[in-house]
Amino acid sequence: MMTWLKDLQLALEPYPWAYSALVVVALIVMTLAVNFITKWILFRGMRRVLDALPPAGSEEHRVFLAIISRLANIIPAVVLAAGASTIPGIHEIPATLIRNLSAAFIVLAFSLALGKTLDLVDLLYSRRPDAADRPIKGYLQLMKICIWTGAVFLMIAMLINRSPLLLFSGLGAMAAVLILIFQDTILSVVAAMQISSNDMVRIGDWIEMPSQNADGSVIEIALHTIKVQNWDKTISTLPIRKLITESFKNWRGMYESGGRRIKRSLFIDQRSVRFLEEDEIRKLEEFVLLNAYLERKRHELAEWNARLAAEGAKPINGRRITNLGSFRAYVEQYLRNNRKINQDMLLLVRQLPPGVTGIPLEIYCFTRDVQWIAHEEVQSDIFDHLLAILPVFGLRVFQQCSDTSGMVPFSSPEPDRREFYRPSGTFPRKK
After folding, report:
1. pLDDT of 67 above 70
2. β-strand 421-423 against 214-221: which pairing, if any?
3. Does the global pTM surpass 0.70?
4. Where residue 148 falls among pLDDT bands split at 50, 70, 90?
5. pLDDT > 70: what percent of the chain?
């Protein structure tokens, strides 16, 4: 082989440029051949090995193949850099330029491989059961920024054929400029560290941030942003520093507490509130839930009224059992005997200040099931029952009437269309 090359060199000695061009073409062909062989051995060979391993075709396998593909680009660049000095008659400047370009390409390929390696680390870490509690994607992105920053400095130093230390020594003068350029990144890094150390947000948390129109589940926490999938399936992307500078609500505590709050009111018509007669009280005694309340109330009122009678007060000054009070006691006992209500948490049935919509009777309790659908089913069942049983206590729900809802049909042998609908409580005029 060497003899053939020497013979070729002697034959082309009158044409030195032709021999140099031939060596350049041979170097390019060798570089392409090395590139093909390297990728064929590494890339295709590793693909077959990975396809044989479970799970075949997974995301981790694809990322690993991307790492191998980027590392395979280094070997042809090494061949090209080593062969640049073997070109006969080449000037030092072109040879140096080829070597520098090859070195810069090697740094670029290695940086891309490192970036994909960090992606692989993120994928493997996300398989851990505690990955949602301590996401590391933001830190990996910070490492990528550092890798790319160092790679850019090395590539520039190699292209201008200077030591990288000279470029790094000028960073002090460029500190103010760099801080201005990477201001968002610095703020995001600080915010990510505070969020992680204080355990403020995890992947899967339901957060509510009205200032950013975000209300849903956290699906990704990155270095600069946090993605929230709203309940209407839209995606809100928030700057992560907003979670430090602005207020937001995290519903994780509700899920961990084991109870989801019910806070809703029944609006009672004030005109339906009255004292109960004795026969009505005996009828309410049929409710097992009211036995203890009515017995205690009878005893309390008997002592009160007996003391008033002894003082010579008239019976009108006595106290009596009301239908609203009895209904309030029934609601409380109904909730305390409901197995779907968390009895270890606050349970309260109270009256709020009356208003133009009647007397609000607020129910404040917590369901055992914190899932939304189950919670709404329990809440609906409770109010279905209370609305249906409300007339038994002689109470009415306040409801604002529309223009025709207060009308009642008026029937006659020969109905007059002008008098078919009349307001309730009115009578036809005599003819």
Report:
1. yes
2. unpaired
3. no
4. confident
5. 78
Torsion of CA 352, 353, 359, 362, to 10 degrees: -10
Place of tokens 């204080």: 198
Which of 278-292, 366-380, 395-409 has the weakest average pLDDT?
395-409
Between 189 and 300, the higher pLDDT residue: 300
- 407 phi/psi in degrees, rounded to 5: -85, 150
Cα 390 from Cα 382, distance rounded (Å):
12
Q: What DSSP element (H or E) covers 389?
A: helix 372-389
Q: Are the CB atoms for 76 and 38 separated by under 8 Å?
A: yes
Query: What integer pLDDT is reported at residue 168 of this predicted model?
Result: 67
Q: Answer yes or no: is pLDDT of 273 > 80.
A: yes
DSSP β-ladder status, 225-230 and 235-239? antiparallel
Buried/exposed code over 268-305 (b: 16+ C-beta within 10 A; e: otherwise): beeebbeebeeebbeebeebebbeebbeebeeeeeeeb
pLDDT given for residue 88 in this prediction: 63
Spatial distance between the Cα atoms of 145 and 185, rounded to a whole number of angstroms: 9
10 Å CB burial of residue 57 (0-12, 13-18, 19+) is exposed
Give, rounded to a whole angstrom, the gap between the first and last alpha carbons of the chain.
Answer: 133
> Which pLDDT score, from 0 to 100, does residue 420 have?
36
The arrangement of strands across the sheet holding 359-367 comes to: 260-268, 359-367, 348-351
Radius of gyration of the chain (CA): 41
List the structure tokens of 5. Answer: 């090359």
Cis peptide before 55 (omega within 30 of 0): yes
User: Helix, strand, coil: what percent of the chain each, to 5?
Assistant: 60, 15, 30
Beta bridge partners of 422: 408
Which residues have a Cβ under 8 Å from the Cβ of 138 and sit 6 or more positions away? 188, 189, 192, 196, 221, 222, 223, 240
Q: Which residues of 127-159 are buried (b: 16+ CB within 10 A; e: fewer)?
A: eeeebeeebbbbbbbbbbeebeeebebbbebbe
pLDDT-based confidence at 402, cuts 50/70/90? low
Structure tokens at 372: 């939304």
Where are the alpha helices (H) located in 127-215, listed in sequence order? 137-159, 164-169, 175-181, 183-198
Three-state secondary structure call for residue 23: helix
